[in-house]
């Protein structure tokens, strides 16, 4: 207890919390001070070289608390208002998630600190790989939560997106972290700089690759055809979405917007947001007949979100968060069930140990995941276009959009309901992930959000058109249908991230063996 108190009283702790919070708040949309992402890790790694490894780990945790605290501040209000949690419990759940996520910068910083005790130069070389590997791990293990990945700050920076189809977001993360090494080097005293001069090769190589690699490697998808699509933004407030009295108003709003978007010329398909339909739509239901009739009236296929009930062996009912595809003739073709659910929003992680969360939040614990990723056809005929759906949280994971691309998707779609987050920064930050998913796979991407931000991205991840928050509207535009197998990043990115983690761990074990051997000698 005494040691912990001393760490909190150490003036470096509040400074790192403040720096992490500043980066977490300002580097990303909507503020968009993206240069901060290239220096975000400099204070942290500078301290890791000076402090004992245990204190370095505490520095990493402190930075993480500030960073994720600022990045996820909106969750308190979301849990309180929509999860029906009392403020103390909402704040406690938020802090529990922040403290958990802060463990990952803590682990990477501790690793750097241990290596630095033997070789500061090697520690600086290992640092970008440690950061890249542990950030990848954060999105893969336990609850898998990659929100706040530093490359998301660069979603409008053309050189960064040009790298996306080659090395993916993981490769860009490695290059960014490598450039940070230059800042750490410059912050060292002159004697230390002379001892570690060789590490400057790392940021110089990274900077060169950042701009040269896209000119050396051609990683483009193939254009198959052109068409048009319309995104419907119904703008149904979360507080009203599931009220029985709002059902008819919801259907009326989607009907009017869909008809208006199809007046001049029917688009290839209409895209509605996540759970746009306010109820399940079993065969023969009024909701199902509504969609069938609207598809025929607009002469457009419809891709839309709705909850679904799935009956497993033994008659056990499971609720799914789903996306349906309906042909322009009104025929229901296929259904995709959300595979990666939102922790605390659609399920409670470790609910055996957190029963109070499930009891307090009626919004949690309702859904079960689908079986896998596959694209949805727009027409009941061979040779028709296929859309690759991602539902809300799934757009945070690069592997999922790559699976859709490899599964034959000609265009990606993200359907989401960001009304959970109100007027916070979360909808703008969530939008950035769609730019990366489009650029990584060389596919156009359409994003339909219930209250915004809905958007159209081209195959380079460039934002072509977007709606505003809390706007009842539609967005119509020309699109391209392309063929992509995930491009080079689909093969290279997973190995880059895994190899980065393994390289950092191997360096740590090598250093620990050397230290033990030195003590034994």
**Rg from C-alpha positions?**
24 Å
Q: Spell out the helices and strands N to C.
A: HHHHHHHHHHHEHEHEEEHEEHEHEEEEH
Q: Given this structure, which CATH class of the largest domain is correct?
A: Alpha Beta
The CATH topology of the largest domain turns out to be Nitrilase/N-carbamoyl-D-aminoacid amidohydrolase
Helix % is 40-55%
How many helices does DSSP assign?
17
Categorize the overall geometry: globular
Secondary-structure-derived class:
alpha/beta
Please indicate the count of domains: 2
CATH architecture assignment name of the largest domain: 4-Layer Sandwich
Biggest pleated sheet: 6 strands, mixed
- Beta-strand content estimate: 15-25%
Terminal Cα span: 35 Å
Overall mean pLDDT: 90
Could you give me the name of the CATH homologous superfamily of the largest domain?
Carbon-nitrogen hydrolase
* Number of E-state strands: 12
Essential attributes:
521 residues; alpha/beta; 2 domains; 15% strand; 48% helix; Nitrilase/N-carbamoyl-D-aminoacid amidohydrolase; 6-stranded mixed sheet
Describe the protein.
This protein is α/β, with parallel strands linked by helices and 521 residues long. The chain is 48% helix and 15% strand. The chain folds into two domains: 226 residues, no CATH class; 262 residues, 4-Layer Sandwich (Nitrilase/N-carbamoyl-D-aminoacid amidohydrolase). The chain has 17 helices and twelve strands. The strands form two sheets. The protein has a six-stranded mixed sheet, covered by helices on one side. It has a six-stranded mixed sheet with strand order 6-7-8-9-10-11, covered by helices on one side. A hairpin with a 5-residue loop joins strand 9 and strand 10. The radius of gyration is 24 Å and the shape is globular. The model has no long low-confidence stretch (mean pLDDT 90).
